[in-house]
UniProtKB/TrEMBL annotation:
Keyword Ligase: yes
Source organism of this protein record: Sporanaerobium hydrogeniformans
Source organism, top-level taxon: Bacteria
Organismal lineage: Bacteria, Bacillati, Bacillota, Clostridia, Lachnospirales
Official protein name in the record: DNA ligase (NAD(+)) LigA
Keywords associated with the record: Ligase
Amino acid sequence: MEKSKLGRMQELVDQLSKAAYAYEQENREIMSNLEYDQLYDELKQLEEETGIVLAGSVTQKVGYEVASSLPKVTHNKRMLSLDKTKEVAKLRTFLGNKEGLLSWKLDGLTIVCTYEKGQLVRAVTRGNGEIGEEITNNAKTFKNLPLYVDYKDSFVIRGEAIITYTDFYKINEALGEKEEKYKNPRNLCSGSVRQLNSQVTAQRNVRLYAFGLVEGGPVFEKKSQQLRWLKERGFEVVEYKQVTANTLEQTVAYFSQEIHNRDFASDGLVLTYEDISYSKSLGETAKFPKDSIAFKWQDERVETTIKGIEWNTSRTGLINPVAVFEPVEIEGTTVERASVHNLSILEEFKLGIGDKVMVYKANMIIPQIAENLTQSGSVAFPENCPVCGAHTLIKQDKATKTLICTNANCRAQRLNAFIHFTKRDAMNIEGLSEATLDKFLKRGYLEDFSSLYHLQDYKEEIKKMEGFGEKSYAKLVASIEKSREVKMPQFLFALGIAQIGLGTAKLICKYFENDLSKIQVASAEELVTIGGIGPVTAKELNEYFTLEENQKMLERLLKEIHFIREEVEQVIDSPIIGKTFVVTGEVMHFKNRKELQAQIEALGGKVTGSVSKSTHYLINNDNTSGSSKNKKAKELGVPIITEEEFLQLINN
Ligand SMILES: NC(=O)c1ccc[n+]([C@@H]2O[C@H](COP(=O)([O-])OP(=O)(O)OC[C@H]3O[C@@H](n4cnc5c(N)ncnc54)[C@H](O)[C@@H]3O)[C@@H](O)[C@H]2O)c1
Ligand SMILES: [Zn+2]
């Protein structure tokens, strides 16, 4: 056996497993579906050639291992994936001379719903096919799912939960500045359905389209009769058409055309046999049922030439590349730009101006680059932010490289800072929406925070602004005036210093007895002696006050406000206050250890580097490892907890 083949297989298994985990478990995509499917096919091919299937191969398992904190439920009937093809000819072979049903392959989240005595009693996600997550309360908020039906015996249906493009765009638009946008409706749907809080699900307009009755109910001869029965019970059923060898091609063409008129995402079609008992007789493979096959859109790929890369600074300071190319027509619309998402992807494509690339529309909607034919790799990352000109910085986070603007004053970032400053928990200034702040910034009314207290200089202009009048202007000014009186912790929090949440701000103010001048000159060494303040937080705070720019800004700002003295000390309510933690090994829930550390500190805990008698907990997801920290903790009787347990601890 050639060693290289086995090596390549191992590489593919690793890559695909990582992608599948990100896609299914974290609603993230680290590669496009096109790329995933190509690598998957390559792996399958190699497995067939060599007769070897490596442990953990994605060709052998369905979906994701359930790792969320939703309750787990074992499926009565295993849920499978679907074998896939991109060729109509393969569908024709599959159908033979039988009757079939062709329906949308909806790109959402598959849900199994159980009804007993005419009532919806349980809804569960597909999960890894054997074990799913119970989401009954969330399912009860779906827009079109019947909670009661006129059929008293138990039965179980399957369907796909989806969110329409219209709702997807609306929800993305309404997201706060700090929240990352959802990439596609599937992504959003998965996040909305696998939710601990069903009120969130309820706001997301999730819809369920049934595609099968899998247990109970009357016995039918044909699949179409079964679907009709579901419709009569009040379920919305996925759109389908009956096909034979003669009509197959034109029906596929019909769906491929119609998808452009639908408001939902579909990544292809599903073909299944009409004859239910025949279907049942076929059985299944380890991964696929033999009675159905998925047809994936043959994404139309078009060649074009890269004209340039646009760099867009987002409001969080991320600078994202967008490829601009010679306009081309794909599936009926003209396309001339595609997001390249981040630096890693840009590098992987080796993009350069003048490069010939193949572009396509993922799921026939979102433009993407599929392949770079010339790979000149000539695009350089901008050294300066396109908005403010400040230096950029490359940030490496796990496998992903991103570009960020280092300037906290960048308009995009400044907007964020003002939003934070005016928040309820901070300076509590009402009547200043994000859109208004953005307009003020653009017009140059806001130099720094102190400018808020001089908006009267622009009184006439503001009153003429859209959405403003005499009344709303007066209200805004009154609210700003009111904010001149502020408690010190709220003020410290409002400054937006990294790591300083309101709880931490309270701890600091208490220690320095509400004397800001002392806080401003405190050294990092002194700061760490405060219970609940760790080295990361101490460093951030110290650096903030050391910067001359910040000192000048504060000087101006402090002229505008005065502090309300607080005699009563504030107690923050946190179960880990004063507790000392050591963190080791890889983390999963947090981006990295630093983030976990910041969370501990924000809640009044402390993080140190080594385990000692005064350590309260060692956080380590692998308490069986023979690491020195584990050994030491066991020796000293320090409890070793997983991240999961830590989360439980702080949420108690
Ligand atoms: N981009 C990435 O990194 C990445 C990673 C993993 C998977 N993926 C994508 O996911 C795909 C594999 O996912 P999968 O195995 O979860 O799903 P699948 O593509 O095999 O879909 C099969 C499922 O679709 C559902 N379905 C929707 N409409 C249906 C209908 N009308 N009739 C019957 N069933 C219907 C069923 O639950 C069925 O089990 C890959 O092909 C790839 O495109 C992408
Ligand atoms: Zn900038």
